Amino acid sequence: MTIHQRTLGTTASLDVSALGLGCMGMSEFYGTADEAGGIETIHRALDLGVTFLDTADMYGPFTNERLVGRAIAGRRGEVQLATKFGNERRPDGTRLRINGHPDYVRAACDASLERLGVDHIDLYYQHRVDKTVPIEDTVGAMAELVAAGKVRHLGLSEASAATIRRAHTVHPITALQTEYSLFTRDIEDEILPTLRELGIGLVPYSPLGRGLLTGTVPASGFTAGDSRGSAYFPRSSGENLQTNLTLVERVRALADDRGCTPGQLALAWVVAQGDDVVPIPGTKRVRYLEQNVAALEVHFGPDDVAALDAAVPRGAVAGARYGDMSSIDA
């Protein structure tokens, strides 16, 4: 199949593949890190036309950018490369703070460029909003990176509608990255209309509900060492998990009728939310990447949207996205 492109942003637009690849799990959080598998998956993604790659300095920490850099060596021209700053960590993994100070923005960018082995970043996000620093100051420093040629486009992650508006007055924001899936739809109230008013693209992370919507998670939950089974992710443990797996079974029934997997149907739902939406499902396995790409071939019409809305009503999912939501801008 040929993967078509979509355009993020209107004032400062960036053409990317209609489906991206989240690289985080190749290095940390979702079970054992797998550098070899990650590089193989990135190579296969590029071969298939999935050229929009997403990483961040804090993944690993720092090791995921190096992995991505090694994987794209010699193929930089094919890639729309996105990375993020703002979740400050030490090399040993200790979390320090959310940092949006201008000096840190500049230093973080230079460090990411070195680790990635590139001379520019296509889309540079503030990973989390630093509530102690005016967003105008942070985005002002990010705009300096654009002027210097180190960054081509700017993005925000998990920012509120009010923050997005303020940031956009300083420099055009090309995309907002935030969680969006059948299980997470609160952005439809205020954030998504704001993005469309301002001409900003949406890059949903966790479009498969952190793996729950794939239909492959057993009732016993995630394996040891996978952070999704911890209290940090309330939706995938205890009674919440059982409630949410019941919802997944409803998705499975609809997927069976369509001859696809629950994950492919759930991903097709996200893709169908608009031409300005580019989800970035993450995986470190070629076979799951190929399954996700096949979701682009699932025809999705109004009746399908209505059926999924009925099967998984807004608010039906049990548990908050994170055990601690204090880092989310509101």
TrEMBL record:
It holds the Pfam family Aldo_ket_red. Keywords: Oxidoreductase. This is Aldo/keto reductase. It comes from the Bacteria. The keyword Oxidoreductase applies. Residues 19-311 form the NADP-dependent oxidoreductase domain. SUPFAM superfamilies: NAD(P)-linked oxidoreductase. The keyword NAD does not apply. InterPro entries: Aldo-Keto_reductase (IPR050791), NAD(P)_OxRdtase_dom_sf (IPR036812), NADP_OxRdtase_dom (IPR023210).
